[in-house]
Design brief:
Shape of chain A: globular
Oligomer: homodimer
Number of strands of chain A: 14
Largest sheet of chain A: 13 strands, antiparallel
Distance between the termini of chain A: 33 Å
Chain lengths: 282, 282
């Protein structure tokens, strides 16, 4: 049984399955009734990048989670070459199990063009990872052992005087072991991690939304890669809920490295349905 | 010559052009060398919605501007029925001129599910539209006459002590005439308007980024429709730049109605290239 980081890297090793087609074995990890969305997103981005010249680098992706993926069933990724331009390249990926599309993504790749630098600063007054308890976590200890990342959860911020939560989830993350230096590995691992806890970050921590009755699911996902960032060094994933209504919640997230550089921005809308236990989500 | 609001509504009247295919005449307005991105986005959303049951309502869209559109050349919209679910419907639209894809969009539609309500409040201390000068605008007066909307520009906010601009563009908007009540009209008109000035909102107003040498272009576009909102009543479009680097800028925007309700969220990455005059953008 490989360790979680080795499994993460193996997950990215897609096999060729035809022209611009790739295949993930998608072994059943033995827990969970749905494939983790971050896995499919990372694999789709890997597949798209496999068809792009190396001097064009992923700067954004936009995706929909179309159907829940079945653990244990292989996933086939079909890449459409939407455009090959001089400065920008565009790809679209459809991920399917059998005849069923489970995920679709478009991604854009850009040839480096240096420019001025400006960024949103990280939240102030956030404790550093070494000063945060290992115990506080929305994820149970047994599940944390299976994860490829160490987590230091800070919990949501306090609401301000108008009831607005500046942050609805704040967590330091890094992989449990060193990763290869290839930038694409870090881009894909950050993609994987960006779906971890995003549903919880979309939810306003209101008493009317009890966590135990929440049927949550990622609906869409967008990522912008602003600057190179390592996934095996501490970064702060800071999520804040923008809106909850119609049983949907939109969250925006940022990933800042420990020195404050903004590496990645994320947006995700999640289904936040209050249900009776056992009811099917979609 | 019809007035700008009539032209806006005519623009949404796509003609049938085959199975799940629609056609926009796209008349040349006589100014501008590229089709306005918000137009293509609004038309694509209209085309997608034409294939969806009326009880499923658009709640989000994600798009890439793949190539500049040519004014005067018809645009053909091909809709792919990615999924028809019980609660959610997914569509993808490819917009092309001849053989060239100029735009691609995915959109999701949701059957209403009431839930708790929570939202980001509007920025504080913003002057109401009647108290804002009609003169201050990033858009020249002659161009404003051609627009279907009234604008009241507030300009960017002051930077805070760390040099961060809470808002990089703030503008009150409403159409110059009353629109039909059909919610889809408002969704599509807000889509159109969401691309107005987004590139400028993505740019940090820094001295190193002189506006006169900026070659800007929308790269992608995402919209979330949180709550019904009218496009013919004042709303505040508040944009803030998240990051500028690599000649790209990400902006996040919100549209609040005058009573403070958050109707729409937007995210757009823009090309922010400092160029010599005359150089081609892409």
């Amino acid at each position: 049984m490989p360790d979680p980081v080795s499994r993460l890297l193996q997950m990215l090793e897609l096999g060729p399955a035809g022209v611009d087609r790739y295949r993930a074995d998608n072994p059943d990890p033995g827990y969970g009734s749905r494939v983790f969305g971050g896995q499919v997103a990372a694999q789709a981005l890997w597949a798209a990048t496999s068809t792009v010249d190396a001097d064009h680098v992923a700067h954004s992706m936009h995706a929909y989670f179309v159907r829940p993926g079945q653990p244990g069933d292989p996933i086939v990724f079909d890449v459409e070459r939407t455009r090959d331009g001089r400065s920008f390249t565009t790809r679209r990926v459809l991920a399917a199990q059998g005849e069923e599309v489970i995920f679709e993504m478009s991604a854009s790749f850009h040839r480096d063009e240096p420019s001025v630098d400006y960024q949103l600063p990280p939240a102030r007054g956030v404790a550093l990872p070494d000063d945060v308890s290992r115990q506080l976590s929305l994820i149970p200890a047994a599940a944390r052992d299976r994860l490829p990342v160490e987590l230091r959860e800070l919990g949501p911020s306090e609401p301000d005087e108008s009831g607005w939560f500046p942050s609805t989830r704040r967590v330091w993350m890094k992989t449990k072991a060193r990763l290869p230096d290839a930038p694409l590995v870090h881009v894909c691992v950050l993609t994987f991690l960006s779906d971890m806890g995003a549903v919880l970050g979309a939810r306003a921590p209101l008493p009317q939304q009890p966590l135990e009755r929440l049927m949550g699911a990622s609906l869409d996902h967008a990522i912008w890669f602003h600057r190179p960032m390592r996934a095996d060094e501490w970064f702060l994933y800071d999520l804040h809920a923008v809106s909850n209504s119609g049983s949907r919640g939109l969250t925006r997230g940022t990933m800042h490295s420990i020195d404050g550089a903004l590496g990645v921005s994320v947006a995700q809308e999640a289904l936040l349905r209050i249900v009776d236990p056992g009811r099917h989500p979609r």
